[in-house]
Amino acid sequence: MVLIIIQIILLQVAHRMSMNDFAVLSTGRKMPLVGLGTWKSEAGQVKQAVIWALQSGYRHIDCAPIYGNEPEIGEAFQEIMGPEKGIRREDVFVTSKLWNTKHHPDDVEPSLLKTLKDLKLEYLDLYLIHWPYAFQRGDTSFPRKEDGTLLYDNMDYKLTWAAMEKLVGKGLVRAIGLSNFNSRQIDDILSVASIKPTVLQVESHPYLAQVELLAHCRDRGLVMTAYSPLGSPDRAWKHPEEPVLLEEPAMAALAKKYNKTPAQIIIRWQTQRGVVTIPKSITQSRIKENIQVFDFTLEPEEMNQVTALHRGWRYIVPTITVDGKSVPRDAGHPHYPFNDPY
């Protein structure tokens, strides 16, 4: 009953946004509801994907240094964006993230400056703390002990947040936010924040609807961004027998009704909830399709039908193999986010 009530409230709140192609941040800045995700887009492919996206009408590109492709994305920006090139910098919303080895306050600004240099930009529209837990400081992205286990750091993310706030004051970023934080950790940040987080980026798709977390963000003035919105079907650790979200009969039926693809139905479901969505693709036709979701509206019962597919399935969980079984890699860290209900 509580879940149904929350769904109804979210639908009412999101209805006003449903025919717009943007969410409004607490800063007043408009954030396009559909962006191009660049995770798993390899060097040699991502530049063209970004160019196709911008040519297709995208005005939101989601990046991160850990993806290993920001320099190539910067080449795309330099080639297609700027005076006399048809696309103004101020019309494109660019997000990047602070990696786990850079949580020490002294490392936050240098890490951002490296990202700006790679992306060939003077500022970011949004900068996120990528994960709430830290790895050992340094330039090795995944520092390890001799036995192969990761070297962690217990840096308090609230201290990291204070350093993030300084970036706003310097004009290096327009807004700051969080990624992969749970509801308790969001409130922990809010309890000390001089500049409140504007966005929470988390895994979300119909199998992980994040209804409670979305309501929590709404109540606190954060916009939610959904990564892996199509269930990340190309992930290397996908089990061959698990259900494929894009092959769900409900998606096929709705796709047929609206003459859309199952992916477009899922993206429309998210955007109609007011959730920013960043599907990844390097295929020109799919990049074009993924943003063509603002010319139809799902009925309330259809929205609930998609939400009801929720199974609590979280796919993007760093794991290790112990005694032949995959277990969460970082679950022992005090800031590991997925031990909490939401």
TrEMBL record:
The record marks K97 as: Lowers pKa of active site Tyr. Catalyzes the NADPH-dependent reduction of a wide variety of carbonyl-containing compounds to their corresponding alcohols. Displays enzymatic activity towards endogenous metabolites such as aromatic and aliphatic aldehydes, ketones, monosaccharides and bile acids. Acts as an aldehyde-detoxification enzyme. Also acts as an inhibitor of protein S-nitrosylation by mediating degradation of S-nitroso-coenzyme A (S-nitroso-CoA), a cofactor required to S-nitrosylate proteins. Also acts as a S-nitroso-glutathione reductase by catalyzing the NADPH-dependent reduction of S-nitrosoglutathione. Belongs to the aldo/keto reductase family. This is alcohol dehydrogenase (NADP(+)). One of its GO terms (molecular function) is alcohol dehydrogenase (NADP+) activity. Its EC number is 1.1.1.2. It comes from the Eukaryota. It catalyses: S-nitroso-CoA + NADPH + H(+) = sulfinamide-CoA + NADP(+); a primary alcohol + NADP(+) = an aldehyde + NADPH + H(+); S-nitrosoglutathione + NADPH + H(+) = S-(hydroxysulfenamide)glutathione + NADP(+). The active site is at Y67 (proton donor).
